[in-house]
């Protein structure tokens, strides 16, 4: 039964890939910059490599950056725009990092190919490369995205997943982005790398009369909960972070799913994936077969990075990622 399930998902993935490639040809394309800026992908990869070599947290930051960008206004680098009431000013985005990597790659590319490569494409390719550098699959994604010109803080909260979301809330939000239940489970695997502030899972604990934390969410492994309470005691500084994955925090692997089955998912939105029969089956499959996870990651990441893309005459190619050209 297990083998048939895996075979079915692979068949669906390959069928989707064929259909999706046909679809994106009208807007995005593979090797979009082959003639106009052939060094673009190499510059981006070298930049991600350079930053990651001095700061191992960079891959996780870049992966979170692409999620937060694509889920609001589509994959158009709207999150990069600075100013009052832009997406960056929303509390949910204040802890997003990796901007300096994108800005650095953009500056180098502008020297070789001015006004050619969008910040949106740089974000997507940098996240793709970050996964590879962290030990995940190396994949191709189409390019040709253009940069958006609208960035509003008010658009953030209704469009990003809160760590306390229920399964229904996540399914509904993902569906509005054209992402399926399978995509939800696969893309949640991004939590295999990266860090989180203590406040992001604080609702799983409560304080006793002496101000000491106690485990409130009994779905969380008690030993893991003790570790979290030691790292994030009551009154901890807002800047304190913990690893999303307590086992292999810097490696993009399938340990996230193994952690879920051991009741060691950091967020409530992680733990709910094993409370649903349909998603638990997928979690078990990915926990048992890293290759299967990687194959599905390639398809789901491709879908994520084409959410709401702007192309053709829509949007612009920014000279600086922090501001529009106008």
UniProtKB/TrEMBL annotation:
Entry keyword annotation includes Transit peptide: no
EC code(s) of this entry: 1.11.1.7
UniProt xrefs under PROSITE patterns: PEROXIDASE_1, PEROXIDASE_4
Names of the cofactor(s): Ca(2+); heme b
Residue runs in coiled coils: none
A Pfam short name: peroxidase
Annotated active site: 68 (proton acceptor)
Keywords of this entry: Calcium, Disulfide bond, Heme, Hydrogen peroxide, Iron, Membrane, Metal-binding, Oxidoreductase, Peroxidase, Secreted, Transmembrane, Transmembrane helix
Stretches assigned to the Plant heme peroxidase family profile domain: 27-325
One GO molecular-function entry: heme binding
Top-level EC class as recorded in UniProt: oxidoreductase
Site (Transition state stabilizer): 64
Paired cysteines (S-S): 37-113, 70-75, 119-321, 198-232
Residues given in the record as Ca(2+) 1 binding sites: 69, 72, 74, 76, 78, 87
Binding site for Ca(2+) 2: 192, 245, 248, 253
GO cellular component annotations of the record: extracellular region
UniProt: heme b binding residues: 191
Family annotation (InterPro entries): Haem_peroxidase (IPR002016), Haem_peroxidase_sf (IPR010255), Peroxidase_pln (IPR000823), Peroxidases_heam-ligand_BS (IPR019793), Secretory_peroxidase (IPR033905)
Residues spanning the membrane: 7-28
UniProt catalytic activity: 2 a phenolic donor + H2O2 = 2 a phenolic radical donor + 2 H2O
Family per similarity comment: Belongs to the peroxidase family. Ascorbate peroxidase subfamily. Belongs to the peroxidase family. Classical plant (class III) peroxidase subfamily.
PANTHER family: PEROXIDASE 6, PTHR31517
The protein's role, per its UniProt record: Removal of H(2)O(2), oxidation of toxic reductants, biosynthesis and degradation of lignin, suberization, auxin catabolism, response to environmental stresses such as wounding, pathogen attack and oxidative stress. These functions might be dependent on each isozyme/isoform in each plant tissue.
Record-given protein name: Peroxidase
Upper classification of the organism: Eukaryota, Viridiplantae, Streptophyta, Embryophyta, Tracheophyta
């Amino acid at each position: 039964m297990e083998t048939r399930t895996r075979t079915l998902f692979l068949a669906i993935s390959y069928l989707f890939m064929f259909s999706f490639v046909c679809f994106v040809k009208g807007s995005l394309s593979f090797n979009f910059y082959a003639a106009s800026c052939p060094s673009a992908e190499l510059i981006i990869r070298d930049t991600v490599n350079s930053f990651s070599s001095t700061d191992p947290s960079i891959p996780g930051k870049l992966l979170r950056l692409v999620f937060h960008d694509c889920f609001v206004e589509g994959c158009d680098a709207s999150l990069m725009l600075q100013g009052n009431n832009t997406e960056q000013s929303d509390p949910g985005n204040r802890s997003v990092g990796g901007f300096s990597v994108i800005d650095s790659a953009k500056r180098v590319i502008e020297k070789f190919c001015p006004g050619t490569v969008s910040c949106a494409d740089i974000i997507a390719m940098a996240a793709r490369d970050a996964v590879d550098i962290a030990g995940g699959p190396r994949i191709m994604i189409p390019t040709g995205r253009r940069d958006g010109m609208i960035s509003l803080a008010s658009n953030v909260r209704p469009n990003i997943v809160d760590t306390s979301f229920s399964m229904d809330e996540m399914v509904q939000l993902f569906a509005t982005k054209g992402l399926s239940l399978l995509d939800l489970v696969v893309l949640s695997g991004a939590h295999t790398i990266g860090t989180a502030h203590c406040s992001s899972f604080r609702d799983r604990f409560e304080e006793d009369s002496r101000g000491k934390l106690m485990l409130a969410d009994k779905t969380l492994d008690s030993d893991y909960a003790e570790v979290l309470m030691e790292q994030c005691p009551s009154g901890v500084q807002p800047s304190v972070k913990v690893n999303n994955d307590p086992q292999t925090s810097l490696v993009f692997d399938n340990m996230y799913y193994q952690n879920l089955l051991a009741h060691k998912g950091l967020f409530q939105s992680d733990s709910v994936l094993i409370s649903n029969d349909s998603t638990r089956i997928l979690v078990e499959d990915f926990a048992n077969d890293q290759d299967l996870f990687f194959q599905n990651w390639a398809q789901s990441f491709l879908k994520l990075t084409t959410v709401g893309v702007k192309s053709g005459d829509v949007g612009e190619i920014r000279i600086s990622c922090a501001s529009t050209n106008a």
